[in-house]
Amino acid sequence: MKRNKNSIFFPILINLSKFPCLVIGGGNVALRKVTTLLNFKTKVTVVAPNICKPLKDLSRKNKIKIIHEPYHKTFLENFEIIFCATDNLQINKAVSKDCKERKKLLNVADVPELCDFILPAVVKRGDLTISVSSQGRAPFFAKEIKNKIDNIFSVSYKDISELAGNFRSTVLNDKKFESAKMKEKAFKKFCMIDWQKILDKEGKKKTKEYMLSIIKEL
Question: Which residues have C-beta within 8 Å of that of residue 206, sequence separation ≥ 6?
């Protein structure tokens, strides 16, 4: 698990509900990491001697677990994925060394050369997840691109994404779409429709009815 500044990070989506995560640090950077992780239904444990109020509030709501102690390598034992969110270089290096020895996957905030993986800027609309990365070299630029995407894809894309999932499931379970050609025809038809306009005009229920009528007509 060798790390170097020339590493190229492979984009991947992972089911973190199967991998409880440890966040080392209790400040605002840790809070941002924790908030992102909770958006993906992750079980999170935070370890730090000092914890900011928003993290304490999350703990009181039983959304995260907090260990009020300085970092020690024994805390790594029950985790495969680690996030180091401190501004202490010595701690960062110690965590990196400990994770490398134990073959744990590590992300160190703003220090890509110590990372096994990095976090992209993310726009999430229900099941639709759009991520942007600069390979850790220019996160401010990735954030700017993310903000532009955020403005392009309105919140209604959450409903459109749900419609797309329902459309696909219905098509795959309909015998008249057994051929690849028919499936392709159906999916192209879905993508040609301005679903945002229909949702705004008709609402979710009637839009779903319209979607089902399209499948019947194909």
Answer: none
